Amino acid sequence: MSELPPACDVGFKEWAGVCAALATGEQTLILRKGGIAEDGGVFTPEHRAFWLYPTRLHESQQGLRVEIPTAPPTDPAVVPIRSLAVVDSIHLIEREGDLDALEPFHVWTDETVRKRFHYRRPGLWALGVRIWTRPEATPIVPTPDQLGCKTWVSFETPIATAGLAPALDDAEWEDRRARLLAAF
């Protein structure tokens, strides 16, 4: 997907620390297994663009190998939506030995990645993503449908993408993208 959609009504729930690492360009890879509330607990990479929906559900700084500064929510009843992920590549990792090559592209600890890989049955989705962000967040008050352990959530009103800037400039992104694709 070379161009941003004019708006997007899909959110992707992820730890707030990971969303912050993605928003700064420190992370360019999403590793996903699936949420308990998803059909059979299985994640499907069904969207090519989605807003990062930061959550503290199941989050633990112990699961990250670097400390990611995240501001405490000013209103815990509101989710700040500011970064859009555009999927560049999708891979199903089926061999545990392939995980080590992905380490430069994410901030999770080795233990966290391996736990996710082995949860239920071996395997993990890896999405190479380019992140677009804006300084001011769009506040979302979660609906009952957005609560719980699930990956994908829908927004009642699509959020416009106007004013987004890339987390990594074009040269940095192309370098990171080439290295990531070589790791697969």
Note down, in words, how this protein is organized.
This protein has 184 residues and is an alpha+beta fold. The protein has one domain (7-183). It is 17% helix and 34% strand. It has 3 helices and 7 strands. The protein has helices at 16-24, 110-118, 170-183; strands at residues 7-15, 29-32, 49-55, 79-93, 124-140, 152-160, 165-166. The model has no long low-confidence stretch (mean pLDDT 87).
End-to-end Cα distance, whole Å, is: 20 Å
N-to-C SSE string, H for helix and E for strand: EHEEEHEEEH
Kindly report the average pLDDT value: 87
Class from helix and strand fractions: alpha+beta
Helix content: 10-25%
Please indicate the count of domains: 1
Q: Please compute the radius of gyration using only Cα atoms.
A: 15 Å
Please give the oligomerization state of what you see.
single chain
Low-pLDDT residue intervals, each spanning 5 or more residues:
none
How does the major sheet shape up?
7 strands, mixed
Shape label: globular
| Beta-strand content estimate | 25-35%
Number of helices: 3
